[in-house]
Every structure is written in structure tokens, then in C-alpha cells.
From TrEMBL:
InterPro entries: SAM-dependent_MTases_sf. Gene3D superfamilies: Vaccinia Virus protein VP39. This is Methyltransferase domain-containing protein. It comes from Moheibacter sediminis.
Length: 172
């Protein structure tokens, strides 16, 4: 079906895209062009990305973008204000993946790049409530683990503790 995909989360995400989005629908992927959006495009989907603007401050223009579906893969956790962004999105379909909060690990923070911080690592019910409050109706949820292949207590916990959470939602 697909060529070999290097990351487990990419495989899960691509399967969800294939399940909920048709190839004739226009996708607005929040975030700059990246290996995952390119992979989705290579599999025949119409994808445009945002241009790197600070969506915490510049989200109003999103509702004027011509898109049927919004995807937000591993990006909501980087926003200070994901509610306003979700509330102002165009389209009728929304597909999101986020890293889940892990009780045994601190939120990710890249000290060399403030844009690469996780302001939110969600618990599933928190993301659900955020999506619903922004006017979306959740139709599907999925969690999966992300084993590291290393030896130790934390790698063992990563094998059995879900790290990623996907939500598909629609609005009228």
C-alpha cells in the first residue's frame, strides 16, 4: 500500500489520513512543510502548509483559507493558545495528533529554539474538551506507543504507555 515509512507515528498518521480524507479534498496542514506533509502529498493528497507565521498571534486569516480538511500533526502542543486557532479554522474536518503527557518524563523543551517547546502535553480528556469547546464533534480517537528500542526503565515504560493521541472531528 505505502512505501516503507521510517517512523512508526508517520505510518499511524498516514493510515488515519487515508481513512478519513479523500484525495479530492484540500488539506491545510498547520505548520511549515515537513517530512510528514511531504509524505502525505507523495501519496496523492492535496496538502498546503502554513508559512511559519506565529499562529498564536496570527490565526484570524486561517478561516479564509480554501480547505476542506485541517490537519495538525504534532503542532498543537507548541502553541500557547490552541483554542483560538481551533476555533478559527476553516473546513468541516479536523485530524489532530499530539504527544500525550507522560508521568515519567518532563515536557519537551529545546533550549536552543523557543519555537520547539511543548507548552502543552495533553491528557486525552484535555484535548477532547479543547476540541469540543472550539466547536468540533469528535468522531474517532486512537492512541499508540512509541518504543525507543533502548534498554532501561523509561524505554520499557515507553513500550507500554501510549505516547501519541489522534483525534478526528467534524463540524457542521
Amino acid at each position: 500500500m505505502y512505501k516503507v515509512i521510517p517512523k512508526k507515528r508517520y505510518q499511524h498518521t498516514l493510515e488515519l489520513v487515508d481513512k478519513f480524507i479523500s484525495k479530492d479534498e484540500k488539506i491545510l496542514d498547520l505548520g511549515v512543510e515537513n517530512p510528514l506533509s511531504n509524505l502525505i502529498r507523495e501519496n496523492g493528497f492535496q496538502v498546503i502548509n502554513t508559512k511559519g507565521e506565529d499562529l498564536d498571534d496570527e490565526f484570524e486569516h486561517l478561516n479564509s483559507v480554501d480547505a476542506d480538511v485541517i490537519t495538525a500533526f504534532e503542532i498543537l502542543e507548541h502553541f500557547l493558545n490552541p483554542y483560538s486557532i481551533l476555533k478559527n479554522l476553516p473546513g468541516k474536518k479536523l485530524l489532530i495528533t499530539v504527544p500525550l503527557q507522560l508521568w515519567f518524563a518532563k515536557p519537551y523543551r529545546n533550549m536552543n529554539d523557543i519555537r520547539d517547546w511543548h507548552y502543552h502535553e495533553f491528557v486525552d480528556w484535555q484535548l477532547d474538551r479543547l476540541i469540543e469547546k472550539a466547536g468540533w464533534e469528535i468522531k474517532f480517537r486512537k492512541k499508540w506507543t512509541h518504543p525507543s528500542g533502548k534498554i532501561g526503565i523509561r524505554p520499557l515504560l515507553r513500550r507500554i504507555t501510549p505516547r501519541y493521541y489522534a483525534v478526528y472531528a467534524e463540524r457542521n
